[in-house]
Amino acid sequence: MPLRQMQRIENKLFKPFIWLFVEASTKTMKENAMQRRLTPSSVIGWVFGIVVFAIGVANVFLVHPVPGIVYLFLSLIYFPPANALLKEKTGFYIPRIVKIILGIIIIQFTLGVSDLGDMIDDVFINK
Fold first, then answer.
1. Is the distance from CB of 92 to CB of 86 less than 8 angstroms?
2. Of 53, 47, 95, 46, which Cα lies nearest the Cα of 74?
3. What pTM, to 2 d.p., does this model score?
4. CA 30, CA 122: separation in Å to the nearest integer?
5. Which of 43, 46, 60, 49 has its CA nearest to residue 106?
6. SS3 38
7. pLDDT tens track of the chain, all 127 residues?
8. What is the DSSP letter of 78?
9. Contact 81, 115 (CB under 8 A)
10. Which pLDDT value is given to residue 47?
11. Contacts of 94 (CB under 8 A, 6+ apart)
12. Do the beta carbons of residue 51 and residue 79 sit within 8 Å?
């Protein structure tokens, strides 16, 4: 395949993703400062997003890739920048109560039903 043709295909595939980053980086400093306010809900969102992301990574490597990938995608709803991007692009946002209920379900499923919960039991409880 000629180099020019490969570059055209590459531009078609990656241009939308590059556009998102360029658009996000062209915001004024004032808008960025307003978005970076540290509130208790944003701190909780970051912490819980990181926890769900870590559960997803553990599932990918220790259990099975499919639930791990699902957890990785679910972790995105807890990160404040992902929420802002979702609201900006679609006008839709996920209400806080839905996030709380989903978080409880994720924790119960991880510790109670999934194979990762059994592995945690074996390592820490059934030494």
1. yes
2. 53
3. 0.64
4. 50
5. 49
6. coil
7. 565 665 565 555 555 545 444 555 555 444 555 556 778 888 899 999 999 999 889 888 888 888 889 899 999 999 988 888 888 888 888 898 999 999 899 888 877 777 776 777 677 776 6
8. G
9. no
10. 92
11. 77, 83, 86
12. no
Cβ–Cβ under 8 Å, residues 120 and 107: no
The Cα diameter of the chain in Å comes to 60
Measure the CA dihedral 55/58/64/67, to 10°.
10
Count of positions (residues) in the chain: 127
H-state helical runs in the chain:
3-25, 29-35, 40-58, 65-75, 80-90, 96-108, 115-120
CA torsion sign for 89, 83, 85, 17 is negative
